[in-house]
């Protein structure tokens, strides 16, 4: 049995701390908890887990498929689009981009920060496990829709058109890579990490991270740092995607101010 003392943190929540030299029992318990990685949090949404498992299994095939599709779109003769497309195409372009960009800003700068400082850490994690894959699935679809509809509009100079197209393409790939390669590992690692924390009764703190008795567990720290590295990687790629859309947003301002027009390149 694990020997512990109880102490009350500043926010009134109870946390556990091990007495010096009493870590062996904890490590043995964690061996049972994480044996073959079978002990996972029960809070992970089942359909999300199935979706991520399937997308991860066929990740390389998905990448190849979209590479072929985008290759075809980008090599199509641009002289076909010397006049304005049907209005619904322009509507779809504006709707897909504006909705996507707004969702990016909300999820990146408002939702996550607000929930982290307003909910117990495990509750916040449960919400993020659901929102995270859905957000990047929607973002990938929206980016692809924006690219297709953007390419159906007339160019306003070859160099500028190339830069704008590149920003949309880069945004799409950042989000797709997160969705099919990183998100499955993040959800799996987080679920395993949370399962350990639930076993020893930590994770109820709000607005900060306190592993309690797990602080001295090498096994737990390895899982935690794996999760942190995956999370930082996805965050950096997401920021790149936001920058790409911010760049294209400046172009949209110009388009809405001046209207689409054909300029000889």
From TrEMBL:
Regions that span the bilayer: 58-74, 94-117, 129-152, 164-183
Region feature Disordered, mapped onto this chain: 1-28
Bias-annotated ranges (Polar residues): 1-18
Record bears the keyword Transmembrane helix: yes
Compartments it resides in: Membrane
InterPro entries noted in UniProt: TMEM205-like, Xanthocillin_Biosynth-Assoc
One cellular-component annotation, GO: membrane
Keywords: Membrane, Transmembrane, Transmembrane helix
Residue ranges occupied by any TMEM205-like domain in the UniProt entry: 95-189
Protein name according to UniProt: TMEM205-like domain-containing protein
Organism of origin: Argulus foliaceus
């Amino acid at each position: 049995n694990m020997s512990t003392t109880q102490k009350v943190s500043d926010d009134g929540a109870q946390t556990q701390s091990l007495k010096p030299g009493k870590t062996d029992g904890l490590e043995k318990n964690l061996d049972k908890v994480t044996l073959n990685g079978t002990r996972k949090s029960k809070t992970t949404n089942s359909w999300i887990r199935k979706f991520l498992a399937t997308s991860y299994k066929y990740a390389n095939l998905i990448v190849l498929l979209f590479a072929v599709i985008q290759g075809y779109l980008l090599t199509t003769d641009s002289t076909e689009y010397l006049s304005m497309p049907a209005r619904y195409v322009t509507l779809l372009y504006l709707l897909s981009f504006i909705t996507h960009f707004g969702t990016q800003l909300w999820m990146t700068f408002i939702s996550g920060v607000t929930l982290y400082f307003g909910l117990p850490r495990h509750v916040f994690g449960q919400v993020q496990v659901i929102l995270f894959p859905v957000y990047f699935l929607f973002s990938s679809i929206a980016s692809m829709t924006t690219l297709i509809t953007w390419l159906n509009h007339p160019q306003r100079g070859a160099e500028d058109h190339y830069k704008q197209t590149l920003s949309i393409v880069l945004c799409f790939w950042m989000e797709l890579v997160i969705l099919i390669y990183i998100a499955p590992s993040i959800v799996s690692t987080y679920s395993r990490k949370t399962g350990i924390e639930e076993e020893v009764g930590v994770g109820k703190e709000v607005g900060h991270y306190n592993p309690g008795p797990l602080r001295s567990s090498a096994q737990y720290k390895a899982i935690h740092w794996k999760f942190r590295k995956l999370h930082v990687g996805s965050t950096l790629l997401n920021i790149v995607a936001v920058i790409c859309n911010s760049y294209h947003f400046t172009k949209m301002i110009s388009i809405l101010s001046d209207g689409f027009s054909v300029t000889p390149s």
